[in-house]
Amino acid sequence: MSTGREIRCFDYVNHPYEQVREILSKNAAAVFQAATKSAASRARTVASELRLDVGGFALEAEIIISVTKIEQRTSEMGAPVTRLDLEWHAAKMPSLFPLMKAGLSIYPLTSTETQLDFSGVYEPPLGAVGKALNAVVGHRIAEVSVHRFISDVGEYLRRALA
Q1: Quick one: fold of 5-160?
Q2: Backbone angles phi, psi at 6, to 5 degrees
Q3: Where are the domains of the chain?
Q4: Taking the alpha carbons of 11, 145, 157, 107 in that order, is the dihedral positive or negative?
Q5: Which H or E element spans position 144?
Q6: What whole-number distance in Å separates Cα of residue 3 and Cα of residue 21?
Q7: Residue 21 CB neighbour total at 10 angstroms
Q8: Integer distance in angstroms from the first to the last C-alpha of the chain?
Q9: What is the value of pTM for the model shown?
Q10: Could you tell me which residues come within 8 angstroms of residue 128 by beta carbon, excluding any fewer than 6 positions away?
C-alpha cells in the first residue's frame, strides 16, 4: 500500500465462510454495487455508492470499485482466508475525491459465521490543501464512509444468503 491514511473496519455475516467466499469470488463488484444501492433504497435516498450525512448535509459520490486480485490462502492457524484487493475512486471528478486501495479479507469465525475484515489506505486529493482538509475533517468522512460501506455489504450478504 502507500503512505496515505489507513482505515480498518470489520463486520460479520452469520453464514458459513464457503457461502460468503463463493458469492464474493463470483462477482464482488456486483455485490458491492447491489449492497450500497439497496441500502440507499431502504433509506429512501438517491442511490449512490457512498453516502454520508454531516450536519444536515448529504455528501455522496458514486464510486467505481475494481477488484484487482482475489487470493485464497491458509492463515497461520490453518483457517482458510480469501482476500480481495480493491481500488476505488469517484466516478465523476476523481481528482476531487480520495483514491482508496484496500484489502477485504474474509475468513471463518465459526462454522456458521464469517468475518469481513477491511484494511485500506487512501490518498487525500488536492495535494497540501487536501492533506490539511483531511487532518481537520476528511479522515472522519472517509472512516464513516468505509464503515458504512462494509456494514452495507455485510447486511446485503446476510439477506442474500438467508
Answers
A1: Alpha-D-Glucose-1,6-Bisphosphate; Chain A, domain 4 (3.30.530)
A2: -90, 145
A3: 5-160
A4: negative
A5: helix 139-160
A6: 30
A7: 20
A8: 35
A9: 0.77
A10: none
DSSP 74-110: E-TTS-EEEEEEEEEEESS-GGGS-EEEEEEEEEEEE
Take residue 34 and report the three cell numbers written for it. 447491489
The neighbour count for residue 6, using CB atoms within 10 Å, is: 13
What is the C-alpha R_g of the chain? 16
- Name the DSSP class of 16: -
Handedness of CA 162, 52, 98, 41 (dihedral sign): positive
Taking phi over 0 as left and psi of -120 to 50 as alpha, with beta for the rest, 5 belongs to: beta
pLDDT digits (tens, 9 = 90+) for 17-32: 999 999 999 989 889 8
Q: pLDDT tens-digit profile of 84-122?
A: 999 887 777 666 667 789 999 999 999 999 999 999 988
Q: Map grid coordinates 483457517 to a residue.
A: 79
Q: Is the dihedral of CA 35, 38, 43, 48 positive or negative?
A: positive
DSSP element (H, E) containing 153: helix 139-160
Query: Angle, to 10 degrees, between the axis of helix 17-42 and the axis of helix 139-160?
Result: 110
